[in-house]
Write a structure and sequence with these properties.
Elements (H helix, E strand, L loop, with lengths): L1 E5 L9 H13 L3 E4 L10 H5 L1 H17 L4 E3 L2 H14 L2 H12 L11 E3 H9 L1 H7 L8 E4 L3 H4 L2 H4 L9 H8 L3 E2 L18 H17 L4 E4 L2 H9 L1 H8 L7 E3 H9 L16 H6 L7
Parallel strand pairs: 1-2, 1-3, 3-4, 5-6, 5-7, 7-8
Length: 294
Amino acid sequence: MKFAYYPGCVAQESGRELDLATRWVCRALDIELVPNPRFSCCGSGFVDEANETLNIALNARNLALAEAAGLDILTICSTCQGMLTLANVRWRDPAVRAKVEPALAQIHVAYRGTTKVRHLLDILVNDIGAAALQARVKRPLTGLKVGAFYGCHLLRPADELGSESAEEPQSFEALLTALGATPVLYRGRVMCCGFPIQFVKPETGSRIAGRQIADAKAHGADAMATPCPLCHISLDGYQNQAERVIGRKLSMPVFHLPQLVGLALGAEPEELGLGRHLVPTGPALAKIGTAAVV
């Protein structure tokens, strides 16, 4: 398998461990990643709020770059998945194209609408498959109870994204089971992480994150895992603020999706950048008999 690799902004900067883990996993599974230095930010939902036409043009340009290379896109960010996919869907509307095509023409870009956008989670579950993944497991995550946290843009709006159920998704839990972990079901797994609100009402954003983490903890989770780097920032990076706002200690390790896959396939914690997390992952690693990153 070969894809145009769209890591998104966070995985190239503050969340470089996500890129590191993704590259390790894709090498192990013979997924070829083709980077494109001309890819730009997807707008992260914020540009869309201010100027929908600009946001569609921004993402249509990224889609056109992959199209020119004859490749579909692999992304590791739920938000990027949502923005790129929605641009693809809205591109089908002639009225939208009439606005966007002139903007693209100014930078000598044309998009025919052929690029598919795939999240790594979708590729692992539906292309590799649970059985094939399970056959490659070298370090089963047996004994580790994990609460999946999907993120908004991977599931909603479901009718436009063509996603699985936004209320009762199963793909992440199926993946965790294949890796040997025990999935933890809790209501917060399909709720907002609070990340966008951090910029305008940080206390509210932290309260939302704290509520979801506490929900996972109340249902027995030893750790959480997310396919979205923005959710990871909210759940891991702002967890200390969430603790202050809700008035209780959480101490919840939060993994990026490919980090758990990498651990199960035999990668060492150092190879997956686990030492970069703000909430120590050591207690979760101990559950699977692996030493923490020093």
